[in-house]
Amino acid sequence: MQNFLPVLKEAPLNTLTQSQWQRTVWWEEDAQGAIVCLLDQSVLPLQMSVLRLRHEHEVAEAITSLRVRGAPAIGVTAAFGMALAAHRLWHEQGAESPLESAYRSLMQVEALLRATRPTAVNLFWALERMLACLHTAQEERVVETLPQLAHLLTQEALRIAEEDERSCEAMGRLGADLLQDGDSVLTHCNAGSLATAGIGTALAPFYIAHQQGKRLHVFVDETRPVLQGARLTAWELQRAGIPLTLITDNMAGYFMRQGKIKAVFVGADRVAANGDVANKIGTYSVAVLAHVHHIPFYVVAPCSTIDLALETGEQIPIEQRKPEEVTCIRGERIAPLDVPVANPAFDVTPHTYVTAIITDRGIARASYSTSLRQLLAPDA
User: Fold this and answer.
1) Considering the domain boundaries, does residue 174 fall inside one?
2) 354 pLDDT band (50/70/90 cuts)?
């Protein structure tokens, strides 16, 4: 597995090439067809394993099982899954296969991928873009063969990945401006390069500020029950050379009261029109603690995470995951047999606890009902 160095556009410093960033999801082709490549996050940090997926059902399973996770990365993976299916149809049925049959099959693939996870809106945003591309091909007859259709969908998926990489850079630069030399910050879950096609959302400001020479210290919540903070964020920051301290989730308030946390940076899986934010379970608790201790609470997310169709966070669907994630760690049982378990994967933080939402188009502040719509306006 090779690392890659992001080419950051309009970089004022030539220092960002000094750190290596781990590629999470990418596209390959060989003589047998197309491949969606994923770094298997379910086995990190003990093992680095690359999944090479050739069927859309494998892509759907990888999303559902958290082999790939993080809202932007899920969206990119789903887009690649659509393109992969088109290539598979081409190689299995031949270049002369009727397009109408392919269109019907690809609509079924979209439904399969759409059903994988309910909360992260980037998944649906990316699939809507792939559907729009498919409908354009069908209604305007811009392609005549299945290979041309596969190429069209592949190019759109690659654009989605490239746009995500650029949006990570933009959010990183905006967020880095909010960090001062010597700051200590807290983050929850994983919102770094492992969660995106670029350098991350909530971790991107840390990476860029670090490269700018600002001294930072990051407190990393372990993030039960799947331990994305302990397994993934700590691994990322350590590789980047950023000082960190790993803490359990219930230690955050202690360190806030000690005055050791100056700001909180988290990602998001969906942002409602009023600024309510769905993110990994436990985020709401951190936001309340930050509010009590007068600590800025920043949400970092691309505009593709904003869902203006939902007025408030109460309308955001919350994924309920299997009880084994709570009762077991790495296959080892830690709870009594047959104990009742609740396992919501996300919670919603009311906008009143959010200091600002850092997006790839700018920073939104209250009133979010106005500022978020302004960011998403076509002429913004």
Assistant:
1) no
2) very high
Instruction: Confirm whether residue 69 is marked as ligand binding.
Output: yes
144 lies in a domain?
A: yes
Tell me what the mean pLDDT of segment 9-22 comes to. Answer: 40
How crowded is residue 83: how many other Cβ atoms within 10 Å of its Cβ? 28
Q: Tokens for 16?
A: 């960002």
> What are phi and psi for residue 298, nearest 5 degrees?
-105, 135
Phi, psi of 276, rounded to the nearest 5 degrees: -65, 140
133 residue type, one letter: C
> 118, 138, 168 — which closes off a domain?
168
Percent of the chain past pLDDT 90, that is, above it, reads 90
Catalytic positions: 269
- Structure tokens belonging to residue 271: 């942002």
Instruction: Confirm whether residue 132 is marked as ligand binding.
Output: no
* Structural domain total, the chain: 2
CATH number of the domain enclosing 256:
3.40.50.10470
Question: In which domain, by residue range, is 259 found?
Answer: 180-376
Q: Across-strand partners of 48?
A: none
- Is residue 280 marked as binding? yes
Asked whether residue 291 falls in the same domain as residue 365, the answer is: yes
Task: Return the pLDDT at 21.
Answer: 63
- For the question of whether the overall pTM of this predicted structure is more than 0.90, the answer is yes
Q: Look at residue 378 in the predicted model and tell me its pLDDT.
A: 82
Average pLDDT over residues 80-99: 94
Asked if 120 contacts 86 with a C-beta cutoff of 8 angstroms, the reply is: no
Locate 168 and state its tokens.
Answer: 């990570």
Residue 117, marked binder = yes
Integer Rg of the chain from CA: 21
Same domain for 132 and 216:
no
111/204 same-domain check = no
Q: Are residues 361 and 242 in the same domain?
A: yes
CB neighbour class for 206 (10 Å; exposed up to 12, middle 13-18, buried from 19): buried
pLDDT mean over 107-119: 98
Give 13's DSSP letter.
Answer: S
Q: Alpha-carbon dihedral of residues 363, 368, 372, 375, nearest 10 degrees?
A: -40
Q: Which of 112, 134, 168 is the last residue of a domain?
A: 168
Q: Which two tokens stand for residue 364?
A: 């939104």
Helix orientation angle between 71-93 and 56-64, rounded to the nearest 10 degrees? 160
